Structure formats: structure tokens, C-alpha cells
Amino acid sequence: MSAEPIMEPVMTQDPIDLLNAIEEASPVPIRPEYVEGTIIVPPYPDEDHNDGIGELYIQFRSAGFPLAGFGSAFRAADKNGGTVASLAPDFYVRRRKASDLDAAYRGANGGRYPMDMLDLVGEVTSTNHKTDTGPKFRAYAAAGVPIYVLINRHSKTAHCYTDPVLPGDDPTEAYYATDTKVTLGDPLPLPAPYPTLDTAPFLDD
């Protein structure tokens, strides 16, 4: 997501309840997130951020991936059903259309789908690049999302992370074993059957 987030540590209470309360209390539409025990409320992204995401979305759709999307939030749970993460990726490709079971899950979790619906997830950094390269990187790996695409405007690099690894039960230890990295502006190859992404839309004019 874009811009500097507001972060508050979460000690007690179900995180989904807290996220819903923050959304309801906000005078403007927001989508707070929860990761590694912290609630993140990102401010509105800038136009370059949104324009670039739109370009990537078009690339996926043009390559024949109708389940590419943006705007939805997804929840990851531990083995006891507790919320581990609730994230709203900048873009994604789903494994499947939402089933009746997925819709029921969404209704029970404040509008958040199960994260196992995701085959590919993507983030575009702004001033919050440490969130996308740290907690979100680990959260997506812990949830077993096969591919994490990161457009890092801070380092001017683009990454395709694959092969998620969760060494034990601690999601903060998760990581992606493989990093395909290019300079921002160069083509970013993705695993088959996905297309190679044009990252030039993220270059400064």
C-alpha cells in the first residue's frame, strides 16, 4: 500500500473486531490491515501508485487471467482459527472465484476472504516500504501464497518471490526462498503460466 501508515500494537480483543471498529469510526473510507500484532491504517495512495497498479492489472487481464483483481481484503488464520493477518493487497490473482463457502467466510470475518484464495499477491511500495518488505513479506509466505510480486519504488527494484517457507509455527519466521529481482523499468519474469510484467509504468517521468 502507499504512504506512511499509522500503526498501533494489538494486545487483546479479536483483531477483526478492532479493524471493523476503526473502519466504522472513520469519517472517510479506509481499509485497515493487521499483521504481526500491529494494526496498520494506510493513508490514501498517490496517483503514480494507483496508475501503476492499474497498468499491472491490465497486463494480467490481457494475458488471460480473469481472476486478477484489486480492492478485496484477505484473512489468514492459525491452526486454532485465530486471526494471524488481515491484508488488502494492491493487486492479486485468485485461485478460484468465491464459492458459497468463501462468501460465508467473508460474512463472518468483516468482509475478508480467506487468504488461501490467492495464487499471486502484489504490493507497490511508497513511504511504507519496510512494511511491504518485512511484515507483509513474511505474512504472505506464512500463509503459503505461492507468488509475491513486490514493486519497490524505494530501492527502484521489482521482485518476484516464490517458494514460501514456514520453518515452524511462528509466522514471523516465514520467508520466500527464491527472489527474482530486476531493476525497476526492466521486464519482470513470473513463473508460468503468468506473463512477464512490464515495470516501466513505475519509472519516474
From TrEMBL:
| Signal sequence interval, chain numbering | none
Instruction: Name the InterPro entries on file.
Output: Nuclease_put_TT1808, Restrct_endonuc-II-like, Uma2
Residues covered by the Putative restriction endonuclease domain? 30-167
> Which PANTHER family does its entry note?
SLL1072 PROTEIN (PTHR35400:SF3), SLR1083 PROTEIN (PTHR35400)
Protein's name according to its UniProt entry: Putative restriction endonuclease domain-containing protein
Q: Which organism is it from?
A: Streptomyces fodineus
